[in-house]
Amino acid sequence: MPADPSLTQADFTGLTLEGIRALYYGSAGGAGYDISSAQDAQGHAVTLPEINYVRVEVLSGKAEVDGFAAVFVPQRVGH
Description:
This protein is mostly helical.
């Protein structure tokens, strides 16, 4: 199960290990990126009903990518 991409550092503040595990919903972790804020070349918001390709650009150093996945984002209490 991929990690919820909407999680932020603030979501973890004050949580016990049990609370952190609950936020991950069975995920082993990883970096999540939310594409709902996608923009066109002029900076206007766009809706992406489908994605066919993902391009990863490494500007310096190296990157290790294991995979990409569509992620269900659960509704959390207080959000």
